[in-house]
Write a structure and sequence with these properties.
With 174 residues, the chain is α+β, with helices and mostly antiparallel strands. The chain has helices at residues 3-35, 40-65, 70-90, 92-107, 151-156, and strands at 115-119, 124-132, 136-141, 146-150, 158-163. The protein folds into two domains: 3-90; 109-163, SH3 type barrels (Roll), CATH 2.30.30. A hairpin with a 4-residue loop joins strand 1 and strand 2. The longest helix is centred in the first third of the chain and has 33 residues, at 3-35.
């Protein structure tokens, strides 16, 4: 087998592995979302973030398969990371909101349709959660205002859940 054919074989194996990992990841996130009654749009954000990580790892593996030297990759990555670091430092809130969105997805008890109070020393908002995206929580207050709160702020503030949305698929645990 020629080196070229060997690289093609490894590339094919990598593509199959990536497809399998994506299917497993999608099924796991979907199952977790259904068990925890998480809105489909919130699951999409987690899908996209996990796919991005899988593609980055696969791209790195592909570069090694096709013969990029480790030194070349390190130089390219350090250059890219330097530029991204400056950009993300300028926009650190983007990363914190995405991270907070992932944490809200997996670990926070609030769901779309819940009635909550956000407890803060300057303001207290009470209302129903309309949507939770990768960056924001959308809420309709009891006074009729539609407010948008960054997900990183939701993680920092105290939240009182007043009424949970009944999903109907919860089991009765005695």
């Amino acid at each position: 087998m020629s080196p070229y054919q060997e690289k093609l074989l490894y590339t094919f194996i990598l593509l199959i592995a990536v497809l399998v990992v994506i299917l497993i990841t999608k099924k796991a996130i979907s199952r977790f979302g259904l068990v925890r009654s998480i809105e489909v749009n919130r699951r999409k954000v987690i899908y996209y973030l996990s796919y991005m990580i899988i593609y980055l790892i696969a791209g790195s593996a592909l570069a090694f398969i096709w013969g990029f030297e480790f030194r070349q990759i390190v130089i390219a990555l350090s250059s890219v990371l330097a530029v991204l670091g400056v950009g993300f430092f300028a926009q650190w809130s983007i990363l914190s909101n995405l991270t907070a969105s992932v944490i809200l997805f997996f670990n926070h008890p609030i769901r779309i349709g819940d009635r909550i109070t956000i407890i803060d020393k300057d303001y207290n908002y009470t209302g129903i959660i309309i949507d939770i995206t990768g960056f924001f929580l959308f809420m309709r207050t009891d006074t009729g205002k539609n407010i948008t709160i960054p997900t990183s702020i939701v993680m920092q503030k105290g939240i009182e859940i007043l009424d949970k949305l009944e999903t109907g698929d919860e089991e009765d645990h005695d």
